Amino acid sequence: MEWFDFVLERYNYWIVIILMMTGLYIVFARGNLVKKIVGLNLFQTSVFIYYLTIGKIAGGTAPIYVGGELDHGGGHGEEAPGHDAPGHDAPQGSDASLHETPEGASDHVNDLFGGEAGSDKIANDFASNDLKETLKDFQAQGAAAPTGGEASLHTPPEGVDGKIANDAFQNIKKPESIEFSIGDGHEAGANSLADAVHQASEVIYTNPLPHVLILTAIVVGVATTAVGLALAVRIREAYGTIEEDELEVIDNVAEFGEEARARAEGAAS
Amino acid sequence: MIDANLAIPLALWAPLLGCVLIWLLDKSPNLREAATLVTGVILLGLAITVFAAVGAGERPTYELIQVIDGLPIAFQAEPLGAMFGLIASGLWLVNSVYGIGYMRGHNEKHQTRFFMSFAVAISAAMGVAFAANLFTLFIFYEVLTLSTFPLVTHYGDEKARKGGRIYLGVLMATSIGLLLPAIVWTYAIAETTEFTPGGIFTAHMDAVGPIAGVLMGLYAFGVGKAALMPVHPWLPNAMVAPTPVSAFLHAVAVVKAGVFSILKIAVYIFGIEFLHETGASQPFMWIAAGSILLASAIAMHKDNLKARLAYSTVSQLSYVTLGAMLATQMGVMGGAMQIAAHALGKMTLFMCAGAIYVAHHKSLVSELRGMGRVMPFTFGAFFLGAMSIIGLPPMAGSWPKFFLMVGAADAGQLAIIAVLMISSILNVIYLLSIPIQAFYMKPAEGDAKPQGAEGEGIKWGALKEAPILCLAPPMLTAFGAFLLFFFSGHLYDYLTPLMGGVHG
Amino acid sequence: MNFAEQLPVLPIITPLVMAPVTLLLPKGRAPWAWATLASWLTFAACVFLLREVSASSAGFISYHLGDWAPPLGIEYRVDLANALVLLLVSGIASLVFPFAYRSVQLEIDERQSSLFYGALLICMTGLLGVTITGDAFNVFVFLEISSLSTYALIAMGARRDRRALTASFNYLVMGTIGATFFVIGIGLLYQATGTLNMADLHDKLAGNHSRVVDAGFAFIVVGMGLKLAMFPMHLWLPNAYTYAPSAVSAFIAATATKVAVYVLIRFLYSIFGFDFSFMGSAFTFVLLPLGLAGMFVASFVAVFQDDVKRMLAYSSVAQIGYMLLGLSFATVEGLTASLVHVFNHALMKGALFMAVACVVLRAGSHSVEAFAGLARRMPFTTWAFILSGLSLIGVPLTVGFISKWYLLQAAFAAGHWYAGFLIVASSLIALLYVGRIVEVMVLREPAEEGKYAIPARDAPLSMLIPMWIMVAANIYFGVNTELTGEIARRAAEALMMVAGGAP
User: Fold this and answer.
1) Do A85 and A36 share a domain, yes or no?
2) Total domain count for chain B?
3) Do residues A202 and A125 share a domain?
4) Higher pLDDT, A22 or A263
5) Is B184 in Cβ contact with C409 (below 8 Å)?
6) Which of A257, B111, C211, C401 measures 20 to 30 Å from C251, CA to CA?
């Protein structure tokens, strides 16, 4: 029953596909303009779900910063089995990179602070402007370091494994934690800052980027729905109906005279 | 005398400037006509300058702009182009004089638009004559088509619209549909479209060899203005236009630009030697021969004088195409001379037809019996013009026929010689019969008094000729055709560089 | 802050910030003047940008939005290809805005006029954004910004003809489906590579031959095909162009589909590249035949239209076929031809739709009947129409000829000689439909009575001047191809280099 597992493990994609097809079918099959809009909405929603499903990491929490206290380090290894078990998530390669990258990061932060430890000014600056700089350097390292992880992430034959974490966006998350830690670090000193960074990196977050993307897409979808419904209202005002075939008859009658109506009725019967 | 290099751009710009002047002088017809004539004189002077310079062995050049890399709008005068430029500008002047007489005699509307279009068209014809590459030639070829469209549809009625539609449709369809791809194909293979003595394909034998016949076909039919059957219908249909326009189409610029392009492509793009070796032009030689006979046969059945002349033109143009396709020295020479001789002869015939129409409002051949006694000068000129077209000495038209026959003999195509002879006989039947009937037959009873409005003109005793502006030009061109017979030797020498080093 | 460093963001920021202001301005001329100013500033920025890119040694300018470095941050990446399209879009806009005033006065409710200008600015922003961005998801966002405002703009034509509403609705449905397909494709690519930055995508996709990428490719091509009205997904276009307000037709006909074509080129060449296994078959079995079919079917349909705007709309579908054909040759020449035609076609269609707008202003209709005898009533408009019509046919000394030349040359050089003949054959159909209208304009007698009887008065100068600038551009770029042909060739070479040579 391998194929059964194969199908079942990808249930999230089936949901997306079914929703998508339902939506498209409604758009094309329904003559009522409002129903068309509903179908369009359904279609778009399926895409939202698809984006969310690829951003999910098993065991990952919502991509909201939880601070250094939350200790998830222990659970990490358990929840990330090897990628030979399909349907489960972050394969080992990525696991490694998850550990490695933050290490590099904290080293980096240490370096940065090493020379001028104790200076309040630096901490302040760091919290504001230099974050981006750090991020850039960080990426430069991060991009170089986890190639192994990446390969294992994205090359499985059915790379469709939805809940895969993504290196680049792991990276995004970590600088965030750096930022907050710095606030503490200002008092606690450079070492505790590094500790905090290290601890925070142990927390697994769901990939935040798809969420952000989908927030944008939702806004677009809402706008589209609004414009579409507004148009439907205007069409009803102008024609007195929102049924597509009736609209067509009205237009034809306006252009070709009453015979068009007779023809349309003849065709209907 | 101005520098010949400068004369080329001036020859392009002068008519355009004239066009603007004509437009500005819209309100005072006399000044407007003066502008046309002054332009014509200047243009002729410029053409003579170029002609003389080329005769002295120079090759005046001028580059306007580099449009695409390696594709400039550039000009270079060589013997054939200089000759065409001279004929076109000379006949344009004559035609303008005639056109002024015709349009005034007829009280036509939209005269300003008429002369403006004329000016643009002659500028385009100059561009075709002096083009240094196919790209430039194509550009001016199209401008010529478009600028003559308002002339063809001058009357603006249903008939003119239909004629104009066919005129523009056939010419644009052939030029865009066949000629343009042919040019681009040439460019894709040879990476140049420059007219080069000896042709540009010799160096690309491998690439061109297999498709030479196809390319030649694209060119032969793509140059719709050469009216090779079956792309001739635009020519008879353009007869809806006023007679000066017909004269312009048939003698001055349009069809001449067509056969001129064919000759240039055969000589400077393919090269006579190349054609001779590959035999790519053979099928088109037969098509041209067929075109000659078929068009003559159709012409015999036409009662409308202008329609008869139109089919005669279709037939005569194919002489030039035939000359090019023979791929021999003498064939090319015959074709080139045919351009000059036919221009003078056909110009005469058309202007006579117009003069008859202006004076008596007659346009059918059957109505012309006995008219010779009323219009002796007009029909005298018509007689000379017809002789030249047929190829009887002592008129210019006899030489090209002679060279073509020599060329055909060189190529070993005896059947072509037979075609030429049959064609001459047909010409005699359908052209010469007109003046003979006019002089020797009595007018039919019903036609004794011309019905409808009497046209304007000179009345002198029993004679009733067209106005002097309509009468003098055909006599002048008939005389020109007579003179050219005796100066053909000079023309032969002048055109010798065309033949290159090939001995066929 | 250094002005030059911030240059790439100016074409987006300027209209985006200025657009809402139009709503606050008093009714009358103010919103129009403000929007026109915005379009001119944008155009100036685009001109500077093109000069900068042209001079830069790297061949592109990378701008990090908010100073967040790519691939995480959004990158604006301007190379010659999109600098050319930016110049085109902003240039057309800078002519359409001044042009629009009288036309909008007639066709749009006065209460809506400031909304109209605001929406048109937003639409322009969206198109520019799509072009300039180097981030795949950002393309979607800007695409929808421009599309949403276009839906609203088309619907504003309802004042003259209520069919604008249904046209807009259909466009909305089709456009949204297209955009959603596109975003699914982006999602699949993201899933396979973990990045959204175009350059980064290209690097990560190299050697990645999974089915996810294949699916993403298909979704993106279909989605963009809907947006650019690739035959047979063009059904929304004719109605939308026909019933939109005249100025809107002129603007979107000249820009919207062109930008979509640009996006397709960008995705095919800069992201997938020839390394990607589907490229060859997509070109041979999808884009090439569909381009050819579009050229013929749409041209043929155009011949039988009694409405000039609808005729031009079908002609647009056909012309898109040329662009697809050019890019599907997968050679530098073909890509050059495609880019050149993107530019040139915008010029001709812009001028043609502007001429129609002038006719609508005076004759109140865009049916063929309204064009009868216009040569005598509106000579300047007629000549503008004739010249740009000749350009559409491809007569020498116009941009249409240059396009055709490049395309033919590409076809012959790529060995697709049959395509060369099909190209010229379809431009002969253009001769038919343009010739038909021109004949009506020039040779038909103007109506003396009835609803098409109009006084002999040409369009106002505020419309004639922009229209004639556009016509002059048609001729100028038909003689001097230094800007278009040269830049397009360099852009094509750069694109081909990234794409990695022919398949």
Assistant:
1) no
2) 2
3) yes
4) A22
5) yes
6) C401
